[in-house]
Every structure is written in structure tokens, then in C-alpha cells.
Design a protein that fits this description.
Elements (H helix, E strand, L loop, with lengths): L2 E6 L5 H11 L6 E8 L2 E8 L2 H7 L7 E7 L14 E3 L3 E3 L8 H10 L11 H17 L1
Antiparallel strand pairs: 1-4, 2-3, 2-4, 5-6
Helix pairs in contact: 3-4
Bound molecules: glutamic acid.
Length: about 140
């Protein structure tokens, strides 16, 4: 179980996302994270512990699109490295609720293709899978 918030607005979404995380904190509270998109750049910030720990690390940001997550770990210890969003390169940021049953097989396959994992979570396979599939698509375009 976890809390997930997404926002798009005509003003900075950061306060909206943080307020959403606070309201959903009962669903997961071992770590929290946020990813916002500004131009073509994703800015990610994560913290172990409650949403307030994440809030303390934030600086003002005028991004108008973003996602956020408060985690209840199933795969991997509570830590900043395991906190969502998970990224692959600079193009994909993923938050996820639940369990990916075949994450081990996917991880092995993706590592075989050169993907470098930076967390112990099942979720990270989704970010790498998206990036990998996007690369294949570009190669065949
Ligand atoms: N299985 C994922 C993890 O451990 C998601 C957990 C959740 O739903 O918060 O990171």
C-alpha cells in the first residue's frame, strides 16, 4: 500500500503534491518522493521517513506537472535509494502501488541489456523497461 499523487496545474504543483502526500500519509510512511517536470527536465527529490522530511529538503520550484509517492516498502528496506519515484536515465520517473510478481525475471533480463539498477525495489524494473522499450522504438523508427 502507498499513496500516489499526480498534478498538472497553471501554477507550481509542488505545494499541491506535498499537500496530497500529507493527506495520503496513512497509506505509507517509510519514505516519500516527488518528481516534477520543468521544460524537458525531470527534478526528483526523495527522503526516508515522513513527508515532512521530504518537505524540509524542497526548494521552490515552478514546475506545473508532477508526481509524488509515499511508500510502504514491500521489496527493499525503507531508504532514500528505495523511495519512489524511480528513474531510468533522465526521461522516465515512475511511482507504483503494489507488487510486481515477475520483477526478478525482468530485472535479470534488463541487466542483461545493460540497465544499471540503483535500488532493491520491484518498481525500478518499470522505469528501465519503459526506457528500454523507448530505445527499441527509436531504433526501429
Ligand atoms: N513494491 C513497491 C516497493 O516496495 C511499492 C510499495 C508501495 O506500494 O508502497 O517499493
Amino acid at each position: 500500500m502507498c499513496g500516489i499523487v499526480g498534478a498538472i496545474a497553471e501554477r507550481s504543483v509542488q505545494p499541491i503534491l506535498i499537500e496530497g502526500l500529507k493527506r495520503l500519509e496513512y497509506r505509507g510512511y517509510d519514505s516519500a518522493g516527488i518528481a516534477t517536470l520543468q521544460g524537458m527536465q525531470i527534478h526528483r527529490l526523495r527522503a526516508q521517513g515522513k513527508v515532512v522530511e521530504l518537505e524540509h529538503k524542497l526548494t521552490a520550484n515552478s514546475a506545473t506537472l508532477g508526481i509524488a509517492h509515499t511508500r510502504w516498502a514491500t521489496h527493499g528496506v525503507p531508504s532514500e535509494a528505495n523511495a519512489h519515484p524511480h528513474m531510468s536515465g533522465e526521461r522516465f520517473a515512475v511511482v507504483h502501488n503494489g507488487i510486481i510478481e515477475n520483477h526478478g525475471a525482468l530485472r535479470d533480463e534488463l541487466q542483461g541489456c545493460g540497465c544499471v539498477f540503483t535500488s532493491e525495489t520491484d518498481t525500478e524494473v518499470v522505469a528501465h523497461l519503459l526506457a528500454h522499450l523507448a530505445t527499441l522504438r527509436t531504433d526501429h523508427a
